[in-house]
Amino acid sequence: MTQSDFIFPDEQTRPRRRGWLGKLLLSMVLIALLAIGALAAGLFYLNSQLKGSGIKVFSTSGEEFEVPTAAEINGPINVLLIGSDTREDQGANYGEAEGARADVIILLHVSEDRQNAVALSFPRDLMIPVPSCPNPDGSEPFPAADLKQINATMQDGAHCTLIAVQALTGVEIPYLAVIDFKGVIAMSEVVGGVTVCVAEPISDKYSKLYLDAGEHTLIGEQALAFLRTRHGVGDGSDLSRISNQQVFLTSLVRKLKDEGALTNPFTMFTLATAALENMTLSQSLTNIGTILGMAREVNDVDLDRITFLKLPVYDMTGDYAGRVGLAEDQARVLFDKIANDEALILQEANVGTGAIVVEEKSETSLEAEPETSDAPSSTPDPSETPTEEVLPEWVQGTTASTKTCSN
Q1: N or C: which end of the chain has fewer CB within 10 A?
Q2: Are 77 and 70 in contact (CB under 8 A)?
Q3: How many Cβ atoms are within 10 Å of 402's Cβ, its own excluded?
Q4: Which residues, including other chains, have CB under 8 Å from residue 192's CB and lie 6 or more apart?
Q5: Is the CB of residue 57 less than 8 Å from the CB of residue 293?
Q6: How far, CA to CA in Å, does 67 sit from each of 109, 176, 287, 398, 402?
Q7: What is the DSSP letter of 380?
Q8: pTM for the structure as a whole
Q9: In this structure, are residues 133 and 159 in contact, taking their beta carbons and an 8 Å threshold?
Q10: What is the rounded CA–CA span in Å between residue 289 and residue 180?
């Protein structure tokens, strides 16, 4: 018997191993192609659905905002987010209310250099002058009013709330997103819940929210109740409710950033699909590429540069007792900075009623300290160190890097 008559173990198994590896590689390629195909089909579906459901939105001069160009997306971004209190198709859990009002109004501004972002909350009880508003069907426009509660502007359409906020602030806002109760529930489920801190027990029979002190991961109906509660936090005012909402929103931003959700195409596809099914967007947002592009732009902003602010207001009296008016001189400071694309930087968190600060830190403080060197250090020239103007002490708000608790 010669050596060629023997088959050694490694020679016997090599062809089988190559065949197994080839099948594995082919399977991985097929899975990747199927995933890409599914994503492409999904994007086509989203785009087609978006174009059929967009809200026409207008500037204060009556010009309709169109889908933005690439240059416009790369510039400053202004979006108005409205939480609707409509009961239509929401089920029997929320009582009855005629029409729809703007329960939550937030102006989101992202600076052109992507170094700063601000979310400015408007109390729903704010009384403001309201300009006339175009009727999308081309008939007579909705009339102007000398003084009207801002949340009631939505009864003529969400685009009228957008026009009212533009007229009030002097900021052009081309983009609008409206979400209802079901939408909040669905979006909280998509992100897997949001963990919030509660300093004092919450017991609110109106929103049906009951939470012990401590940390809670809120999802579904409980997340909605937390965002809606007013009697369960602070002094029971809408300003306290805004502070409480900022507890939730800052935690949500930290979660999305920590998990890289805004840069993962498959996660963003899931979020975009949920947004489409549960939000109504302006026609200027009817391109999925625009939405994904904006998400990536927001992701570039550091947590300590994402600022949540309250609009400065005062308590009204007489016939308007229980309502608030605009503190015009103070508000103009914020409006002008947003309109001029200037940074809105808090010296420290000032949350007002409804929340307390438990941990405040900048992202840069989390970085490892640089290694020391025996070489002499040079003192920087103060004139060469850029300084940024911080907001006055009366400004109320917090940052996404600051942990706050409902109170």
Answers
A1: N
A2: no
A3: 24
A4: 219
A5: no
A6: 18, 12, 7, 32, 35
A7: P
A8: 0.81
A9: yes
A10: 24
Rounded to whole angstroms, the Cα distance separating 125 from 168 reads: 15
Q: What is the pLDDT, as a whole number, of residue 97?
A: 55
| Averaged pLDDT, 379-404 | 79
Name beta bridge partners: 202: 211
Amino acid at 355: A
Answer for the pair 122, 171: CB distance below 8 angstroms, yes or no. Answer: no
C-alpha span between 286 and 290 (Å, rounded):
8
Crossing angle between the packed helical segments 265-278 and 181-190, to the nearest 10 degrees:
160
CA dist., res. 166 & res. 144, Å (int): 14
Angle at 144 between CA 139 and CA 145, to 5 degrees: 145
Q: What three-state secondary structure class fits 29?
A: helix
Q: Which helix (H) or strand (E) holds 52?
A: helix 9-53
What is the amino acid identity at position 46? Answer: L
Question: Model confidence over 115-153: pLDDT tens digits?
Answer: 999 999 999 999 999 999 998 888 899 999 999 999 999
pLDDT at position 87 is: 52
DSSP state of 113: T
Residue by residue, DSSP assigns 120-146 as EEE-TTEEEEE--B--TTSSSPBPPEE
Terminal Cα-to-Cα distance of the chain (whole angstroms): 90
Residue by residue, DSSP assigns 181-235 as HHHHHHHHHHTT-EEEEESS-EEETTTTEEE-SEEEEE-THHHHHHHH-STTSTT
Residue 54's contacts (CB-CB under 8 Å, 6 or more residues apart) are 281, 282, 283, 284, 285, 286
